[in-house]
Amino acid sequence: MNIPTHDAAATVVAPALAEAELALGTVSLNALRGPAVRRLLALRAEHQLTRAHVHTTAQCLAVSDRTVWRWLAEATVAPETAERPGARDSDRFEITPQIRVLLAYWRGNASAVHRELLARADLAIAA
Hints:
Layout: E1 2-6, E2 11-15, H1 18-24, H2 26-45, H3 51-61, H4 65-77, H5 97-105, H6 110-126
Helix pairs in contact: 2-3, 3-4
């Protein structure tokens, strides 16, 4: 996320989250997400939530405003997500180093990689 800063000569784009990341570190910022989202949800319940609250939270957590709004939407639909906003599901597909090699071998053809993985699985089951 970049915030434009106005200079007398030209507009310069400066990184907005460098200070937060340097001061706290990624682990600490991730740990603060839950309490921040719960506080924003409380403000929303009191009809006092403003864009300024979301913007300040986003800056403090080194994420975009849109990300905080998305966390709030997810926590509204599924309140349990307010505990760990932005956390990935454990059943989410991830590209392993082995799959990365196959993608390179098949020149980025995901369908060919999928076919090869299916064929390997069939061989493993048959053996």
